Structure formats: C-alpha cells, structure tokens
Automatic annotation (TrEMBL):
Protein's name in the database: FAD-binding domain-containing protein
Gene Ontology terms for molecular function: FAD binding; oxidoreductase activity, acting on paired donors, with incorporation or reduction of molecular oxygen, NAD(P)H as one donor, and incorporation of one atom of oxygen
Cofactor: FAD
SUPFAM superfamilies membership: FAD/NAD(P)-binding domain
Length: 483
C-alpha cells in the first residue's frame, strides 16, 4: 500500500495548481514544501496572463483572483508595449497580482479539496520501482506514492536526483530586484528606460511601495555576492542617475538570464513541472504562467492514469505538448534580453521592431506568444481548431468555460446529433455530453473538449461527423471505453 497516490515537491504556484487539479479529480495528494512558512513578502512574479486567467475561469476560480489584482490592458516584448485589443478572449488584460497572493489563494483552494500540505518537509532522496516511488525527507521519514512530481524550482532536487539533464545557456548579465519604498517616485505607475549603462524599471505594486529592477550587461554576479539595499542603490545611481529616494526594503534579490530546460519531463514515475523543468529571464512575466499551465496540462492526465482509466503512455503526451511550449519561452526571452542591451546597433533594432509592432498582425503575433493564447498542441486531423483552446462561446445554458468547472472532458453537441449518445456510453463518468445552442449560431456541430480546455475532435456544420475518429480521440485522451 502507498501512503498517497501523488506526492508533489514544492508549494509554489505550479505545485499548488497541480494539487488543485488532482484534488478536483479525486486523487489523494500530499504536497511537501521545504520552507516552514508560506511566502508573504517574497514575490518573484507579479502577474497573470490571459491564458492563465482563462484556465482559472474554467475552474470557477477567477473571481477571487480578480478581486485581489489590478488589470493592465497591455503586455510588453522587451519593454515595447503590446496592446491586447483584438485578442480573442473575455479577458484582454494582464492581471497584476503578486505571486504570494496567488499561492495563498491556490493553497486555500487545495485545502478545500482535501489536499494535504506538509511544510518544513525537504525532499532529500527517492527510489522508484515499477509500482511506486519512495520519497526520503530530511527528517528521516519516508513517504510512498504512486507518482512524484518535482515542482521544486530551478535548482530542483527532484530533477537532480532523477538524473535529468538541464542543458541551456549561461547567464550573460545581472538583474537586481528590490521591493522598496520611494521618497521621490516617478510619476507613472510603470516606468522603464534604457540608458547608457543599462536598463531600469520602477513598478507601483501597492500603496507606498514599489518594485525597482535593474539590468546590467557588463557584469555576471557570482552566486555568493552579497545583495543589499546599497548594492541596488549604486546600480540605480549608475544606470538612472537617481535612486528615487529608496528605503525600507521588503525584499531584495538578484538573478541572471541563464536559460535552461530539462531534456525530458518524465523519468518513469517521476515528473517535472514549472521552474524545475525550465528557467529563463523573467521577460514578459511568462515563468509563473508557463508553470501553472504545465500543471493544468499534467493534472488531468496524471489523474486518469492514477485512477486506472488511461494507460501509462498518456503521461508521455505531457512532455510532447509542454516541452515545445517552454522551449519557445526560452527562445523569446533570450531575444528580449538581447533587445535590452544598450549599444547603438540594438537601439536601431528596437526602433525597427517598435515600428513593426504598429502593424496589427505583428502586435497580435507577439501578444499571442507572450500570453500563450496562440498555443496549439499537435493533434491528428486538419481542422484549425484541433489542439487550440476552445473559444468561450455564450450558450443558452451559460458559457463553455462553465462546463469545465469539474475538470471533466466535455462533448459539446451544438447541432442536436443523437448519434453521440451511443458513442459516449463507453466513457460514462469520464466525459460529459452537453447539448446546448450557441448565441448567434456557430459553424460547429459538435466538439470534444479536453479537461484542460483544448479541442480534441471537431464536427463542422454541414459535414457528416466522423464517429470513428471521435471514438479514437476519446480512447487517446480518456483511455479505452467499456462495453
């Protein structure tokens, strides 16, 4: 007997979102967190992008996050503004909300779902067999589980112990961050400039306090170099010519632009998600969002396998779908870092790109990449909707995303197709057949929506639905049906 079905190492946004997804599916989950207390001051990330907002909406969670955040109707690519008008979504904005608050809300959700969380519980080792994983903790205790998921950050112990490679590119610059109070703040809530000696930003994050960031391209800091308010002050004076009267730091940190990615996201019964699987410079605020979306891709698949509904091979699709996504994030953050450099050639390139962003197609292409709204997972078939996120259509019985609150697959019948009843009986309890009519009509007769909101089968109006292809899609994503 195992002690739990799934152990998650790490109670950051990725680990907690995965715990929520598994708990929603009825999986027994134990989260092990190295830190003894929740993070309340340290907040590396500061916002949620459109696709993450949509994901939270699909689970009925979004309102609580909206209450705690502030919308901003643009994102950026290397500091070049990308307006979000024209993006196909109900939420054409980024939500400014600190990572600590995201973690608090997700932890509350996980607790309501019965997820257990142990703090001051550091993973130091594990062994796996064909049936389970035995996790060793620093206090000498052990936990047995069906699966172990490392959501334990860029220096992941789980990744290292699994022997999973982490290739990539080393740091070429130094960035510093300080959450401070300012005696003489800039006039705008978000203020950023490139100067002769680097780049700096000042972001208003709450009444009376600000996040100050600097990028220096002539120096790569050693891991052991001290990080103090005076260090940040000197960098600001060098780059900006002023420190804006900074004082009373809440949190100080330093990082570089190293970009690395796990060469595989799975080793038997051990998987990786979030920063344990990919690290990069935090350009465009993509890190937390990519990790949360990793969790939503993995959660329903791991639940299906743990319940015995789907074969173990379903877990291989997690790497196949999410590894290319993070590889693209690493690629675009390298490009953004390069565009922040302060030589004349880079300045000329920025001017050209800024001009091109004035073309809607270019702006929307970059905005879709930063916000992950353009993602399309590889699927068999030629319909352009396959693999994409399902549009949140208004229906005569609510909205499409309302149907995904329980993280079930949904076969949405928009064309009154009685033949679908006979197909789904073999997957009772794993797929919800919902008949509805879209407001304003639709070109779709029926669509199979995976629990993560991505489309796995389409029947277009005026075309005979291929029920054999539907059965194949149900088998691929939900496991074999029963007779």
């Amino acid at each position: 007997m195992t002690d739990t079905q799934v152990v998650i190492a790490g109670a950051g946004p990725t680990g907690l979102m995965l715990a929520c997804e598994l708990g929603l599916a009825g999986i027994d989950v134990l989260v092990l967190e190295r830190l003894p207390e929740p993070r309340t001051v340290e907040s590396r990330a500061g916002g949620l992008h459109i696709r993450t907002l949509e994901t939270l909406d699909q689970r009925g969670l979004l309102d609580r996050f909206l209450e705690r955040g502030r919308p901003r109707h643009d994102v950026h690519f290397s500091g070049l503004t990308l307006g979000l008008s024209g993006v196909a979504t109900r939420y054409p904005y980024a939500l400014l909300i600190l990572q600590a608050e995201v973690e608090r809300l997700l932890e509350e959700r996980a607790a309501r779902l019965g997820v257990r969380l142990r703090r001051d519980a550091e993973v130091t080792g594990f062994t796996q067999s064909g049936t389970d994983v035995t996790v060793e903790l620093a206090d000498g205790s052990r936990v047995r589980a069906g699966y172990l998921v490392g959501c334990d950050g860029g220096r992941s112990t789980v990744r290292r112990l699994a022997g999973i490679g982490f290739p990539g590119t080393p740091a070429t610059m130094t960035a510093m961050l300080g959450d401070v109070e300012l005696a003489e703040p800039p006039a705008h809530d978000i203020f950023q400039e490139r100067r002769e000696h680097g780049r700096f930003s000042v972001l208003s994050y709450g009444p009376g306090w600000y996040r100050v960031l600097t990028n220096e391209f002539g120096h790569v800091a050693g891991r052991d170099e001290p990080m103090t308010l005076e260090t940040l002050r000197k960098a600001m004076l060098t780059i900006a010519g002023t420190d804006f009267g900074m004082h009373s730091p809440r949190w100080l940190s330093r990082h570089g632009d190293a970009a690395r990615q796990a060469d595989r996201y799975r080793d038997g019964r051990v998987l990786l998600a979030g920063d344990a699987a990919h690290v990069h410079f935090p350009a465009g605020g993509q890190g937390l969002n990519t990790g949360v979306q990793d969790a939503v891709n993995l959660g329903w698949k791991l639940a299906a396998v743990a319940h015995g509904h789907a074969p173990d091979s379903l877990l291989d699709t997690y790497h196949a779908e999410r590894h290319p996504v993070a590889a693209r994030v690493l690629h675009n953050t390298r490009a953004q870092t390069a565009l922040w450099r302060v030589d004349e050639h880079t300045s000329a390139l920025r001017e050209v790109l800024d001009d091109l962003i004035g073309i809607d197609e270019v702006r929307l292409r970059l905005a879709g990449m930063i916000t992950a709204t353009d993602l399309r997972y590889p699927m068999d078939g030629t319909d352009d909707l396959l693999g994409r996120r399902m549009p949140d259509l208004d229906l005569d019985r609510g909205r499409v995303y309302d149907l995904l609150h329980h993280a079930h697959a949904v076969l949405l019948d928009l064309g009154d197709l009685p033949a679908l009843d006979g197909v789904v009986t073999g997957w009772a309890g794993r797929v919800d057949l919902v008949r509805a009519h879209p407001a304003g009509g639709s070109e779709l007769d029926a669509v199979l929506i995976r629990p993560d909101g991505h489309v796995a089968w389409v029947a277009r109006s005026g075309q005979r639905p291929d029920l054999d292809v539907l059965r194949a899609a149900l088998t691929t994503w939900l496991g074999p049906g029963t007779r």
